């Protein structure tokens, strides 16, 4: 397993060993023991799975607030996405910065997204099966989001964002600046 730091503080790309031959491949997508040996020690207690049937779907940018904040370990098992995260931890060296990572069925990459990051993705192919582990249970009352099309974030979505297929909820999230006054995430405290 290869673990790579990113330009965003505390965010990691995890690339498990993949063994392939003429039949396909085998990979151990998660082993608590191997992750712990690599310094990634979270008690993942919930697995989530979404299916996006069309290319051009945007989901996010989401997070859970307060005691319900979540660390996520993300992977794509069919299709491909541009996975985008934004550091919303006040005082973080990378506060307000965003990055995008291609996750696909072919590269087998996983992304570790710590608490205090807004997360979303755009589907690059149809029929994307998107899976992620969480270290906390979903809490509807703690649900939050940042506008995926906030111009100040400068996210370079690889699709026509004006034609993105989104939920009504995702179209109503505040910009990061609008969210700032109620932002509960403090770097080093979560």
UniProtKB/TrEMBL annotation:
Q: Which domain of life is it from?
A: Bacteria
Keyword Signal, does the record have it? no
Q: Which reaction does it catalyse?
A: dTDP-4-dehydro-6-deoxy-alpha-D-glucose = dTDP-4-dehydro-beta-L-rhamnose
Q: Which InterPro entries match?
A: RmlC-like
**UniProt-listed Enzyme Commission number(s):** 5.1.3.13
Q: In which pathway does it act?
A: Carbohydrate biosynthesis; dTDP-L-rhamnose biosynthesis
- Which keywords does this chain's UniProt record carry? Isomerase
- Please provide, alphabetically and separated by semicolons, the GO molecular function terms listed in this UniProt record: dTDP-4-dehydrorhamnose 3,5-epimerase activity
Membrane-spanning intervals of the chain: none
Q: What is this protein's function per UniProt?
A: Catalyzes the epimerization of the C3' and C5'positions of dTDP-6-deoxy-D-xylo-4-hexulose, forming dTDP-6-deoxy-L-lyxo-4-hexulose.
The UniProt similarity line reads: Belongs to the dTDP-4-dehydrorhamnose 3,5-epimerase family.
- How does this protein assemble? Homodimer.
Q: Which NCBIfam families match?
A: rmlC
The name on file for this protein is dTDP-4-dehydrorhamnose 3,5-epimerase
Q: What is the species of this protein?
A: Enterococcus alishanensis
In the record, what lineage is assigned to the organism producing the protein?
Bacteria, Bacillati, Bacillota, Bacilli, Lactobacillales
């Amino acid at each position: 397993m290869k673990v790579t730091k990113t330009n965003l503080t505390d965010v990691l790309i995890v690339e498990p060993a993949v063994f392939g031959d003429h039949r396909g491949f085998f990979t151990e997508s998660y082993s608590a023991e191997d992750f712990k040996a690599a310094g990634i020690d979270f008690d993942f207690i919930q697995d989530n799975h979404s299916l996006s049937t069309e290319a051009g779907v945007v989901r996010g940018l989401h997070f859970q607030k307060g005691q319900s904040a979540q660390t996520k370990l993300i992977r794509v098992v069919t299709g491909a996405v541009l996975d985008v995260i934004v550091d919303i931890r006040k005082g973080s060296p990378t506060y307000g910065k965003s990055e995008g990572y291609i996750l696909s069925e072919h590269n087998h990459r996983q992304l570790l997204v710590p608490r205090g990051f807004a997360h979303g993705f755009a589907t690059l192919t149809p029929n994307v099966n998107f899976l992620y582990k969480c270290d906390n249970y979903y809490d509807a009352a703690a649900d939050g989001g940042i506008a995926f099309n906030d111009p100040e974030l400068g996210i370079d979505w690889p699709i026509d964002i004006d034609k993105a297929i989104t939920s009504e909820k995702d179209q109503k999230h505040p910009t990061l600046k609008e969210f700032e006054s109620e932002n509960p995430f403090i770097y080093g405290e979560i």
